[in-house]
Amino acid sequence: MLGLAGAGHCLGMCGGIAIALRPSSGASRALPIYYHLGRLVSYSALGGLLGGAAAAVDLAAWTLSLRFVAAVLLVAMGLSVLRIWSGISRLEQIGAIIWRWVAPATRPLIPPRYPLQSFLLGSVWGLMPCGLIYSALTWSAATAGSSINGALLMFLFGIGTLPAMLGATLAGQSIEAFFRHPRLRQFIGISLIFAGVWTAYIAASHAEHLLMPPKASGELSPLTLDAQSPPSNHHH
C-alpha cells in the first residue's frame, strides 16, 4: 500500500528516467522487466541489511524510536505530495551526496542493450535519493524483526511501485499524467499522512508495554502478596 500510495512521488523523481528506458527499435521488449527487477532486488537488499541491523539491537526503545521516525517520514512525504511542506527534500539532499559517488556507475549501462545491463542499471538506480524509500526502509526496519522479513517488506514495497514505474516505461506520458491528476495526488498525500499518523498511534499505544521492564520470576504483585498473607486473628 505504501508503494502504491507513493506512485506520484515515484513518477516525480524517476518518471522521466522510466520513460527514457523504453526499449528502442530492435531491442528486446523484456528489458524494462529486467530493469525493474534489478530495482526490486536493490530494495530487498537494503531492507534485509537494515532489518538485520535493527534486529541485532535488542532494545525496545530503539525499535520504538524507529517506528516514530517512520511515522514522521510518512507524514512528511504526504505533506510533500500535497505540496504543503517540502521538508522531506532536505533528507533527499543528504542522500544525493552518496548518489554522486554511485551515479558514475550508471553511465556505461545507458542505454541498456542486454538484460544484464538493464538489471544492473535497475540495481544501481534503487540507490537514488528518495524520501519515500527512506520512509519504507525505516518502517520495515522497525517492524521486520529479521533480515529476511526486512527484505520481504521492501520487496513488496517495490511491487507496489510497479504500476506507476513500469507503467511509465511501457505507456509513457499517458500513465504519468494519470498519476499526476490533482485529485489522485490529494488522495495519495492524505493516504500517506494517515499511514504516518496510524503508525505513530500504534507505536504510542505500545510504548508502555515495550518499555516496561519484565518482572522477575520471583517478584510478586501487591495483589498476590495480599492473597498470600495470613488473615489476622481479630478475636485475639
From TrEMBL:
Q: What InterPro entries does this protein map onto? A: UreH-like_TM_dom
The domain of life is Bacteria
Q: Name one Pfam family in it.
A: DsbD_2
Q: Which UniProt keywords apply?
A: Membrane, Transmembrane, Transmembrane helix
* Membrane-spanning residues: 40-61, 68-85, 119-139, 151-172, 184-204
Urease accessory protein UreH-like transmembrane domain residues: 1-198
Xref: PANTHER family: HEAVY METAL TRANSPORTER, HEAVY METAL TRANSPORTER-RELATED
Q: What is this protein called?
A: Integral membrane protein
Q: Which organism is it from?
A: Luminiphilus syltensis NOR5-1B
Q: What is the lineage of its organism?
A: Bacteria, Pseudomonadati, Pseudomonadota, Gammaproteobacteria, Cellvibrionales
